[in-house]
Design brief:
Elements (H helix, E strand, L loop, with lengths): L7 E5 L4 H12 L3 E6 L2 H13 L4 E5 L5 H14 L3 E6 L14 H29 L2 E6 L11 H21 L4 E8 L5 H9 L4 H10 L9 H12 L10 E4 L6
Parallel strand pairs: 1-2, 1-4, 2-3, 4-5, 5-6, 6-7
The structure holds acetoacetyl-coenzyme A.
Length: about 250
């Protein structure tokens, strides 16, 4: 059970999928959790699930790529839940297409959410971590960072997050703040369901096909990623920083 004095965590893109599972896991670990998504209403179901399990959470609507909205969100979280000392930059979007068909807008929106979003959230939240002399930042990369056909925009953003993470680790380490990156492989979520639908494949056979190429012979679940976030945010992981861990059921993307 989280107490009013519990450390506060922020998870972005936490209405569904990996973000929702991570928010619930961190609440189970004893954090009070700010559940950020584009619309506050969309974040409510995750908050209700946390509260039903005896945890403490706050739904916050914000576009993580908008500096004013980010500052307002972090200020509100600090006032209503307490100063945030954990930040999980999970919010993400895909706009898959072959390079010659990626529009300017589809390039920009992917950079806006992943890169500008993680930058703005980290810049706003780090102050509270520095004050507390303790913090954990976890950025969600992807196996796509290694290159993936149809994802020049997404792969660029996810590779960028790895360099961002390592730099935060170097700058913030002396203040007790670690920064690490998780690169998920194929995880069964609304995002991968939408991909299957877009390319005209039935979900179950699509999952089976993907699982057949994964050494542990199954699709990943949001909880697989939440578990890894939990490790990085734990007290005992204070000497682990600037790392990228591929959570993909095997060594390759
Ligand atoms: N100039 C002109 N033509 C070109 C060209 C260029 N530079 N490059 C390729 N082409 C042509 C090809 O020759 C081909 O032409 P033909 O059909 O005449 O042979 C055509 O463009 C491309 O046709 P395709 O049918 O191969 O491709 P498509 O445009 O229909 O779509 C795709 C390809 C974008 C890759 C699509 O299949 C797709 O979106 N696949 C899924 C991508 C994916 O894996 N996404 C991951 C989602 S999960 C996730 O993101 C979570 C995570 O973190 C892992």
């Amino acid at each position: 059970m989280s107490q009013p004095t519990a450390r506060v965590a922020i998870v972005t893109g936490a209405a569904r999928g990996i973000g929702a599972a991570t928010a619930q896991r961190l609440a189970g670990d004893g954090f009070a959790v700010a559940v950020i998504d584009l619309k506050e209403d969309d974040a409510r179901a995750t908050v209700e699930a946390i509260e039903a399990a005896g945890g403490r959470a706050l739904a916050v609507g914000a576009d993580v790529g908008d500096a004013d909205q980010v500052q307002a969100a972090v200020d509100r979280i600090a006032a209503e839940l307490g100063p945030p000392v954990v930040l999980v930059n999970n919010a993400g979007v895909t706009r898959d297409n072959m390079l010659f068909k990626i529009s300017d807008a589809d390039w920009d929106v992917v950079m806006h959410v992943h890169l500008r979003g993680s930058f703005l959230m980290s810049r706003a939240a780090q102050k509270h971590m520095i004050d507390a002399k303790w913090g954990r930042i976890v950025n969600l990369s992807s196996t796509s960072a290694l290159g993936n056909r149809g994802q020049a925009n997404y792969a660029t953003a996810k590779a960028g997050l790895q360099g961002f993470t390592k730099t935060l680790a170097i700058e913030l380490g002396k203040f007790g703040v670690t920064a690490n990156c998780i690169a998920p492989g194929f995880i069964a979520t609304d995002m991968t369901k939408a991909t299957a639908e877009r390319i005209g494949e039935e979900w179950e056979p699509y999952v089976a096909k993907r699982a057949a190429a994964i050494p542990v012979a199954r699709a990943g679940q949001p909880e697989d990623i939440a578990h890894t976030v939990s490790f990085f945010c734990s007290e005992g992981a204070g000497f682990v920083s600037g790392q990228v861990i591929y959570v993909a059921g095997g060594p390759k993307a």
